[in-house]
Design a protein that fits this description.
- This protein starts with 7 loop residues before the first strand and ends in a 6-residue tail after the last helix.
- Helix content is 42%, strand content 13%.
- The strands form 2 sheets. The protein has an 8-stranded parallel beta sheet. Strands 5-7 form a two-stranded antiparallel sheet.
- α9 links the parallel β9 and β10.
- With 350 residues, the protein is of the alpha/beta class.
- The structure holds D-xylulose (XUL) and manganese (II) ion.
Length: 350
């Protein structure tokens, strides 16, 4: 039943972007990185999702101490604005050393770079005030499968998970699965893979997942079911709500903008399982359309938050007794009409 959670929302600064895609340049001016923080509270957000170099923008040019000083300064700035860091994710897909992946690269030197950068991201996370790091395993995979020994790759991933758990006894690792892009064949493509990796680790309670709607859809899976699966294992660290129009490139569309019913079912799963009661965020990962003008462009964020809240209302007014009766009678045709009319807001004829 509905728990009436007051949801807390987060997004990452990369969600305010300049409109570039692989086929064309930017269409909007860059909005100053630090000024983005001031946009959060007025729009109803309090959590910031960070990459390591969102916290320390010139990460490659500063030493370890300077990076941590910067992270503590960012924490102070966040405290002053009533904001919190939700997680820090090591960005292991930009530097030359990550061209063949980080933890699963065929180069030992490059694997060392990835591990060192990850441990530094743990320190940055702690300094900016969060105990969560996200592994979005962008380039951990291949363009052709013969390029890597897959079993060895999974062993290497597990080794890194264990190294991180051992390095900081309080840190949590949230693995964000994605089946493709930028690689063709990605390691850890689904929630099931992420959770298996968690259970194989030395302290599975500290290894969870972030489920992004679009990533689940790209794996031809239902995002709400993926969330339910993670919740059944108490392993839903966070969600990245968005939408995706079929099996294409990663679109990061506004939540519910393609498949409203699937979005409703995601909200139902979160509502019915008291998601958020321990402070978990409703995270967004959405991209504004390239055609959108303005400065800064943020409607896709406020729209997604609003669509989520509208669907929470729909979830709370969804008549569970009626649903139970349809289930009992195994009248799924009736249940379907009731559900669709409930979403449409039309008078029920079911
Ligand atoms: C990429 C993606 C990332 C992660 C954080 O598809 O979703 O932005 O959420 O690295
Ligand atoms: Mn994401």
């Amino acid at each position: 039943m509905s728990n009436k959670t007051n949801y807390r929302f987060s997004f990452g600064p990369w969600n305010i972007s300049e409109g570039a895609d692989p086929f064309g340049p930017t269409t909007r001016k860059a909005y100053d990185h630090e000024s983005k923080f001031a946009l959060y509270r007025p729009m109803g957000f309090e959590g910031i999702q960070f990459h390591d170099d969102d916290v320390v923008p010139n990460l490659a040019e500063v030493n370890v101490t300077q990076a941590l000083v910067k992270a503590s300064e960012v924490k102070k700035a966040l405290d002053n604005q009533g904001l919190v860091a939700e997680f820090v994710a090591p960005r292991l897909w930009f530097a030359g050393q990550t061209i063949d992946g980080g933890y699963t690269s065929n180069s030992a030197n490059d694997r060392k770079y990835a591990l060192d950068r990850t441990l530094q991201a743990v320190d940055i996370a702690r300094s900016v005030g969060t105990k969560a790091i996200v592994f979005w395993l962008a380039r951990e995979g291949t363009y052709i499968r013969e390029a890597k020994d897959v079993k060895l790759a999974y062993q290497r991933l597990l080794e890194v998970v264990n190294r991180v758990l051992d390095y900081d006894k309080e840190i949590e690792i949230w693995i964000e699965p994605k089946p493709n892009e930028p690689t063709d064949l990605a390691f850890v493509p689904t929630t099931g893979h992420a959770i298996s990796l968690a259970y194989a680790s030395d302290d599975h309670k500290r290894v969870k997942t972030v489920i992004e709607s679009a990533h689940a859809i790209l794996a031809n899976l239902d995002p709400g079911d993926e969330m339910a699966f993670a919740l059944a294992h108490d392993k839903l660290g966070s969600v990245h709500l968005n939408d995706q129009n079929g099996l294409k490139y990663d679109q990061d569309k506004s939540f519910g903008s393609v498949n409203l019913r699937a979005a409703f079912n995601q909200v139902l799963v979160l509502e019915d399982n008291d998601y958020g009661r321990r402070g978990e965020f409703v995270g967004l990962d959405v991209k504004a359309m390239r055609t959108q003008s303005g400065f800064p462009v943020v409607k896709h964020l406020s729209n997604t938050r609003q669509i989520f809240l509208d669907l929470v209302e729909k979830a709370r007014s969804y008549d569970r007794k009626r649903v139970a009766a349809y289930r009992e009678a195994r009248d799924y045709e009736g249940l379907e009409l009731y559900t669709v009319q409930h979403l449409l807001g039309t008078k029920s004829t079911a």
